[in-house]
Amino acid sequence: MTETDKSLLVVNNLSVAFGTKDNPFKAVDRVSFHVEQGEVLGIVGESGSGKSVSSLALMGLIDFPGRVTADELRFKTTDLQTLNEKARRKITGDEISMIFQDPMTSLNPSYTVGNQIMEAIEVHQGGSKKERQAKAIDLLRQVGIPAPESRINNYPHQLSGGMSQRVMIAMAIACDPKLLIADEPTTALDVTIQAQIIELLLKLQREKQMGLMLITHDLALVAEAADRVVVMYAGQIVETGPASDIFKAPKHPYTQALMNSLPESSEGKDRLNALPGVVPGANDRPQGCLLNPRCPYVTDRCRAEEPEQYGPRGRQVKCFYPLDEAGRPTV
Amino acid sequence: MLQFLLRRLGMVIPTFIGVSLFTFALIYLIPGDPITIMGGERGFGPEQRAELEAMLGLDKPIWQQYFIYLGNVLQGDLGTSYVTRQPVMSEFMSLFPATIELTVCAAIFAVITGLTLGILAAIKRGGLLDHTVMTISLTGYSMPIFWWALLLILLFSVNLGWTPVSGRLDVMFWVDEVTGFMLIDTLLSDEDGAFISALSHLVLPSIVLGTIPMAVIARMTRSSMLEVLGEDYIRTARAKGLSKRRIIVKHALRNALIPVITVMGLQVGLLLSGAILTETIFAWPGIGKWLIESIGRRDYPVVQGGLLLIATIIILVNLLVDLMYGVVNPRVRHSK
Ligand SMILES: Nc1ncnc2c1ncn2[C@@H]1O[C@H](COP(=O)(O)OP(=O)(O)OP(=O)(O)O)[C@@H](O)[C@H]1O
Ligand code: SF4
Ligand SMILES: [Mg+2]
């Protein structure tokens, strides 16, 4: 699938730089992808690969000194880059919304959950207090919170992690967003709760025909839930494609390593330890292909030059030697 | 909430007992005994002395004396001034409004300026405003009250002639004492311009007294705001598309105020002790000036009673602050 005028979200060469002008650190480096209505896009990569920074950039939440640039950032027909702050705010939390990794700290401890959900409705849709309250109760019911009429008066510290994340989801879908970004929505939760939350998200996504960007460390989850997958490494996209293709035959050595580390052997679902070493940070990005210090197939060319994205639109890989069906590097 | 209230009240009683023990012991801690002091230069003969001791209860065992003292205190009897022969309580009551008026104005100045500067500094972090505020508050904090008062008097009273140097009201006005609060009494009287005069007398002492608390509040507000602005729930609020103003006022300030309120409570003690010096500098007829003069005159019942009253007030204010803390912070309210 490729992007069209009908695409919900189109991102073209999005970069986010931190650090000084002279010595910038590109936390996100020329990232391009798109999300269609009613589609689940999975984004995977180890810690530090730029998943959160990308999504925050989409929400317009990168602060100075962070610098966001892009050739195109389009939501439906709206160019997000030229919007003024007020118009941007009108979309955020209304048509595009986001839930975060740690629900316990993501809710304001000083206000009841009802107050916080009703605030989202108030800002974007208005309505009388009574209507908003009824809507908030209905939302809590939709996200599977028992006895919503009384829960609405709870403060966040009275809720468990799973309940808090349900509240966050209720808040995010309060205004019927077209696009929902879920940034590792289950990482902070008990294993037993994780599946329930994902199930809830996917159910809501289907019912409301939302585009869902599901950011996660959990490859197995992506294989199951996502239509298409974006694999990120050190701020760059290294491979994209339909979920089924990627899991049948990954073309990038990094994706392959991620899959090999997949615990059919089960534990460590949220610690991807694909290859020896870690994602390079601000000061230790190598020359050439960013994976080269960790890549099993590295050659001198990889150390000198950076590979382009190769392959047809919608099935691309950023490697000089994309893997063949059997998982061997092509030379 | 009720449980929380009772728990806090339960903590007040031991504190009060501790303070009363201290002020009671004060008489025994200072050199010389009360009778000798009362006798002054002339002194008493042995018979007179024994008679006085019996009258004052000084011949009883110390623990008994303490309970008698405590009993009297609880009935509002703090003894009689050696000098004026007036009950300490009634002297205190007649002077206290002046001190309250000064401390309240100083507190208002400190809270309003401190909060505003702190919030602005946090929002404009790293900017010129932030640096200015931090410099002001650091200077304000380390400025000796005495020096600061003189500086302000020189500038505003002597050079510019904007404000009076001392007292509560210009001598040309005659205002009946109704409440003891000059701002209110002047409004009630039919003297034209008396209110303005009272107000202008309050400006400098309030600023002088309020400067240190203002600096403390500004710094605390700034750092607390900065911390809160980095919290996850602020990111959530932004992701909801809320306006900057709403995020700062509703989501950040509410949480940032929690530690600031505690600090404000601690400042009340500082204000009351600072009032002692400030009142002396500006010849402000309140309990501060009264206490200092009593120390000079070795009027021990006054010193003892005055300290006990001030300490009690500080305890009560801190209790009030604790309760307010419970109101703004649901986690405290619900904790068992
Ligand atoms: N505000 C910031 N200033 C400077 N560097 C930042 C900032 N935010 C993120 N980074 C850096 O950008 C890189 C990408 O971070 P990001 O949070 O997007 O990773 P991630 O893929 O979401 O990882 P995780 O799986 O741990 O959430 C990291 O090296 C991080 O240190
Ligand atoms: S370009 Fe070279 S180093 Fe980079 S992933 Fe491909 S084989 Fe590995
Ligand atoms: Mg992240």
Approximate shape of chain A: globular
Q: Beta fraction of the residues of chain A?
A: 15-25%
Using the coordinates shown, work out and report the CATH topology of the domain at 9-98 and 185-193 and 210-304 in chain A.
Rossmann fold
End-to-end separation of chain A: 28 Å
**Structure summary, number of beta strands of chain B:** 0
CATH C-level label of the domain at 9-98 and 185-193 and 210-304 in chain A: Alpha Beta
Give the low-pLDDT segments of chain A: none
Mean pLDDT across every amino acid position of chain B: 86
The portion of residues assigned to helices of chain A is: 25-40%
Pick out the low-confidence regions of chain B. Answer: none
Radius of gyration of chain B: 24 Å
Structural class determined from secondary elements of chain A: alpha/beta
Largest interface, with counts of residues having CB < 8 Å to the other chain, equals: A-B, 28 and 21 residues
Question: Tally the helices of chain B: what do you get?
Answer: 14
Query: What is the oligomeric state here?
Result: heterodimer
Q: What's the shape of chain B?
A: globular
How many beta-strand segments of chain A? 11
Biggest sheet of chain A, strands in spatial order?
7-8-9-3-10-11
Give descriptors for this structure.
heterodimer; A: 331 residues; Rossmann fold; 6-stranded mixed sheet; 12 helices; B: 336 residues; mainly alpha; 14 helices; binds iron/sulfur cluster; binds magnesium ion
In short:
The complex is a heterodimer of chains A (331) and B (336). With 331 residues, chain A is α/β, with parallel strands linked by helices. Chain A has helices at residues 51-59, 85-91, 103-106, 113-125, 129-142, 148-151, 161-172, 191-208, 219-225, 243-248, 253-260, 300-304; strands spanning 9-19, 24-35, 40-44, 67-69, 72-75, 78-79, 96-99, 179-183, 211-216, 228-233, 236-242.
